[in-house]
Amino acid sequence: METEGLRICLLWIFTQVVTQLHVNMEKELRTACHAPNEKIDRVLKIPNDLVSTYEASPQALKNGRN
């Protein structure tokens, strides 16, 4: 039974992390898309930058991502 509780806890953590990444990516993309002189190269780079930022974060280290 403990294994099931751990699985549920890990799924909840994963969901929270993915949700936060999604929220951050949406904010960044909206800001970039509405900027007057934004270049498409910068807009396309945003998702990669956010994933790199997450991978370098303490949360990623706690979750064994690095």
Task: Output the keywords.
single chain, 66 residues, mainly alpha
Question: Could you walk me through the main structural features you see in this protein, from its secondary elements to its overall organization?
Answer:
- It is elongated, with a radius of gyration of 16 Å.
- It is built from three helices and no strands.
- 82% of the residues lie in helices and 0% in strands.
- With 66 residues, it is mostly helical.
Radius of gyration: 16 Å
Characterize the main sheet: none
Unreliable runs: none
Estimate what percentage of residues fall within beta strands.
under 5%
Report the helical percentage. over 70%
Spell the H/E element sequence: HHH
Distance between the termini: 29 Å
Integer average pLDDT: 80
Sum up the overall morphology in one term: elongated
**Count of separate DSSP helical elements:** 3
Number of domains: 1
The total beta strand count reads: 0
Structural class: mainly alpha
